[in-house]
Amino acid sequence: MEKNSSIGCTVNNCQYHAQSEDYCTLNKIEVGTHESNPTQVECTDCTSFVCKAEACDCK
Ligand code: SF4
Question: Where on the phi/psi map is residue 16: left (φ > 0), alpha (ψ -120 to 50), or beta?
Answer without folding.
Answer: alpha
